[in-house]
DNA sequence: CAATCTATCTTTAGACT
DNA sequence: AAGTCTAAAGATAGATT
């Protein structure tokens, strides 16, 4: 007897699913679905794909081919030019704002340099230290202090960025949404063969 | 009789598509498909989803709801514990190897904290200083210093990196790409729709 | 090439276990 | 709560414009 056992897939509105349970199920199912799609794209086209998902509760899920760190590091370190015809402009904006962490890192490095200098000066006056701070083990740091520091760095970062923009806007009078300052092309690990350069 | 106009969707093997043109088309189509899925997951479940795709040529594409930076920063900064039942083991393994940049960032924060402490101690002995460098407004940095920043950072970066190799397993291979953002505020985090297409 | 077409393949909503 | 089932919804391969 050909009685329908189920109604089959039903159409649903494209809006937040009201029912908690249904939403959870859908979250799980569709997340898996995206992973599968990502893996297929990777296989079929030889691309590297990373998917990051955060549940409303803030729990993190990720999928990466070859690995999610590789993917994110690629974005953060290498920052290749966007090439998506559909999302080109958006990409340009995003990608260069994406540098925030990297910039912070740079900021920190430079501030460390300054600190080092100043400490050197201080040490001349108080020559009873044996090791530089950079040689000390990191060890014991209170969460609170770290957080405070992070906030300060963030503020400083904004100042520097603003100043940097003045500087580099003057230096390179470009109308582009960004300006690349120092590309150091010598060590670019992503010089690709012309064969695959198309996309 | 109604003649078939197309053969419809054909099944394809799940392996790298040999034909270059087909592969390109598939890359584009399926990438869009994943973006759509991601956006739907976000809408239906209130999740934040980020997708990063790198073509074999290393060109980057990304999609993010609310924004790809937010997503990646979340991973890099917060590094929440894995909670994916499907990929649990893989995730656990991956996340245990902390993100390299994040590690460096943390390292630097730590070292700065140490530096701060030590400078505080030093200052007690040499109480003719008024403020710590981290308290100085950044605008007091000279133009010259800002211009020299790249070089300094690179040198220090190498130094830190060398020491990092001792502490951590792996060294970063990339030199620092000094890209600078202009302060595009970009209030609209939603991706696909927000922009006039440039071409 | 981007866009459309459409037959067919693939995903998944809902129900049950 | 993870797995199964089913049929409808949705994605897309291949062709065309």
From TrEMBL, chains A, B:
The keyword Transmembrane helix does not apply. InterPro entries: MEF2-like_N, TF_MADSbox, TF_MADSbox_sf. It comes from Vitis vinifera (Grape). Keywords: Coiled coil, DNA-binding, Nucleus, Transcription, Transcription regulation. GO terms for molecular function: protein dimerization activity; RNA polymerase II transcription regulatory region sequence-specific DNA binding. PANTHER family: AGAMOUS-LIKE 58-RELATED (PTHR11945:SF725), MADS BOX PROTEIN (PTHR11945). SUPFAM superfamilies: SRF-like. It comes from the Eukaryota. The keyword Magnesium does not apply. GO terms for cellular component: nucleus. It is found in: Nucleus. This is Agamous-like MADS-box protein AGL62. Its main location: nucleus. It holds the Pfam family SRF-TF. GO terms for biological process: positive regulation of transcription by RNA polymerase II. Residues 7-67 form the MADS-box domain. Residues 98-125 form a coiled coil.
């Amino acid at each position: 007897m050909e009685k329908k056992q189920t109604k089959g897939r039903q159409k649903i509105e494209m809006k937040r699913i009201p029912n908690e349970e249904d939403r959870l199920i859908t979250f799980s199912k569709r997340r898996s679905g995206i992973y599968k799609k990502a893996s297929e794209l990777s296989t079929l086209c030889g691309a590297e794909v990373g998917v990051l998902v955060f549940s409303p509760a803030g729990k993190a899920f990720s999928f990466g081919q070859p690995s999610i760190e590789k993917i994110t590091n690629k974005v953060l370190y290498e920052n290749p030019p966007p090439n998506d015809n559909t999302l080109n402009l958006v990409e340009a904006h995003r990608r260069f704002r994406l540098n925030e962490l990297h910039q912070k890192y740079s900021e920190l490095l430079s501030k460390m340099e300054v600190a080092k200098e100043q400490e050197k000066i201080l040490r001349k006056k108080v020559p009873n230290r044996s090791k530089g701070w950079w040689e000390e083990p990191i060890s014991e740091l209170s969460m609170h202090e770290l957080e405070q520091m992070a906030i300060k760095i963030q503020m400083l970062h904004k100042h520097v960025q603003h100043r940097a923009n003045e500087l580099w806007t003057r230096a390179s009078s470009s109308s582009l949404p960004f300006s690349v300052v120092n590309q150091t092309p010598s060590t670019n690990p992503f010089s690709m063969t012309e064969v695959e350069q198309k996309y």
